[in-house]
Amino acid sequence: MLKHYSQFSLTGMAFVLSVSRSGFHRWFKHRNKPDQRAESQAARDLLIWEAFHRTKGRSGARCIQKDLEENGFPCCLKTIQASMKRQELIPKAAGKFKVTTDSKH
Fold first, then answer.
1. What is the pLDDT of residue 2?
2. How far from 22 is each of 13, 14, 27, 28, 46, CA to CA, in Å?
């Protein structure tokens, strides 16, 4: 819509795209500003990323939730799960202990 702003009338474009003129003007005014929700989501994603990598990628959403609550950032479990999925953070299981020396010789 921004490409054709100088070629067509605003009323005609709004009619074709089924949007109001005031809605277009609001979008045009705020198109480069992140909203408050996106900023808080980015800050929360950073906290979750840091908590995940502090445990060498072994913590799941429940452990991260407990860690964030202890640090004063309470967060819903589903929110943490969605953030981990969005960031592609997949916890890895710790490997089992394997005996490498043979003492029966």
1. 65
2. 12, 10, 9, 10, 35
